Amino acid sequence: MKADTSAIHAGFRGDVASGATAVPIYQTVSYAYKTAQELADVFAGRAPGYIYTRLTNPTTTALELRLSELEDGIGCIATSSGMAAITSVVMGLLRAGDELIAAAGIFGGTVSLFENTLGRFGIKTHMVDAAETEQFAKALNEKTKLIFVETIGNPRMDVPDIPAVAEIVHKANIPLVVDNTVTTPFLIHPEAFGADIIVHSTSKFINGHGTAIGGAIIDTGRYDWVGGVFEDLKKLAQRAGRLAFLAFLRNLIYRDLGGCPAPMNSFFMLQGLETLPCRMDKHCENAAKLAKYLQAHERVCWVNYPGLADSEFNGRVVKLFAGRGGGLLTFGVGGKEKAFKFIDSLKLARNLANLGDAKTLVLHPSSTIFSEFSAAEQSKMGVGEDMVRVSVGIENFEDIKKDFEQAIEKAFEVQR
Amino acid sequence: MKLVVNGNELDCSDGLTVNDLLTEQNVKMPEMVSVELNGEILKRGEFDTTTLKEDDKVEFLYFMGGGDGFK
């Protein structure tokens, strides 16, 4: 199947009992067995079966199968959020004293998870500039256990040279973790460029409608857990082969951390996936048009969209995303006051902390999702006081443009 | 042709794909099974396209959260 067909059909071929074509929502905590022996066999792993929705659930299984196929993985574990996915991956691979390297322009919540929450458990994070590939190599040491990048840093809009980073990572015999939330499998297959593990916040473009929180972990099957640097997994890989990491998560880390999705939320993600290819086309088309419009606007000081021809990352956009720059951009109108006035004046676009919705969304990152960081820290992460982040929706472009036009004019009325 | 499935020797018809074998062997919960062919885990998309050959070793594996937690 081609990817846009898999988005609709993979993981579920209709309900045998009822003929239902939508994936049923198995809103259940647990699963009953006729005999004590049957349940004991399932618990012991001697027979397949569902035990408890914190571990597995049939609705969530359909989502996992579909995501795995779309990312060309060997398997997937769906989680309650993107943060839960990243937490499971890092806690599954690193121990106190271990280190990771992350691109500095990644989502502030992920930075906080690495530095604050996981930092409390003795895990050290080195932040490097994704624009400069050699910085990843320089930050490596014998304690480094993984490298983490986003396909497009949010909101810095920087694009790491994923195949070049993968080469550095693999020379060190450690895995490359790629967050594919903002690009989705319809702009890039990170597996083809060397990603070992892919994570998603499925709440964003995959869900596409701002209706549910979720995440996912996909193992691409590229990393050799038998010959790798993780002692726990080497032992397990003797039994589970390349599935060792997913088995380790499912049977221990993910199971114990409790970050499972609600079955209803898995259903929302499956619904979202069906239209994802069409939506991504429109998100990219509208974002490219909006970026060009803003760039030509005399009131706009700067625009950051990797799909623009003059972006320093445009070469990587062509190489990695077949020239499509995604649905996110940032821009400045000259200061926090004007940025606030612009946001307050919008009539169509919504001011909220999310992205990837069918609706156009705006956010002032400095005072919201990055407000826990000092001005100096924000600057390192590519966030400034004048920055407005836009998640460009799939409305008619003329309506988006008209809304931005009138809001920019209003932003400048303050100064008169 | 002869195959070794989960450690047991089996006589199977020629030209069988992995998906055919799952059906023929009436494998439980086929949507949850992982298939290892000669030591390599197959991707699900390969179940339909992989034709089994004489003496292939096939293992059906499940990782559904049971077991000992691999401590």
Describe the fold and architecture.
The complex is a heterodimer of chains A (416) and B (71). With 416 residues, chain A is of the alpha/beta class. Helix content of chain A is 40%, strand content 13%. The N and C termini of chain A lie far apart (59 Å). Chain B is mainly beta and 71 residues long. Chain B has one domain (2-62): Roll (Ubiquitin-like (UB roll)), CATH 3.10.20.30. The model of chain B has no long low-confidence stretch (mean pLDDT 88). Chains A and B meet through helix 3, helix 8 and helix 9 of A and strand 4 of B.
Q: Would you spell out the secondary-structure blueprint of this structure?
A:
The complex is a heterodimer of chains A (416) and B (71).
Chain A: H1 3-9, H2 36-43, H3 58-70, E1 75-79, H4 82-93, E2 99-103, H5 108-117, E3 124-128, H6 134-139, E4 144-150, H7 162-171, E5 176-179, E6 197-201, E7 215-219, H8 231-240, H9 244-257, H10 263-296, E8 302-304, H11 314-321, E9 328-332, H12 336-345, E10 350-351, E11 361-363, H13 375-380, E12 387-391, H14 397-413
Parallel strand pairs in A: 2-3, 2-4, 4-5, 5-6, 10-11
Antiparallel strand pairs in A: 1-7, 6-7, 8-9, 9-12, 11-12
Helix pairs in contact in A: 1-3, 1-10, 3-10, 4-9, 8-9, 12-14
Chain B: E1 2-5, E2 8-11, H1 18-24, E3 34-37, E4 40-41, E5 57-61
Parallel strand pairs in B: 1-5
Antiparallel strand pairs in B: 1-2, 3-4, 3-5
